Amino acid sequence: MAEPLVTYHGVPVLVLDADGPPIATVQDALDLLVSSSYAGADLVAVPAGRFDDSFYDLSSGLAGEILQKLANYRLRLAVVGDISHHLRASKALPDLVRESNRGRDVWFVPDLGELIARLGR
Length: 121
Description:
The chain is α/β, with parallel strands linked by helices. Helix content is about 45%, strand content about 20%.
């Protein structure tokens, strides 16, 4: 089944299914970029569990590479779901989440409702 493209407050959002393939490499992220761009999305909402644990371990460099690719392709990202166990296990991740949530390109939100509310602001 294709991922749904929906519009919230004028923003086309590709909402990925939680049961989809994991995002464990930069190539996985590039594949996601291609499909999201093809679908016409400005923002992709990715369930937190789709990201491999190495994404949340900032020392792996995976998050940095993926976020850079998203920026290069001008695609916004919302990581949707509970990442509290990753936040507790890291000193750097809470800073990344806090700084990202202050901007408009990458957000970490607990649920789709919060994402919709943020898009409305």
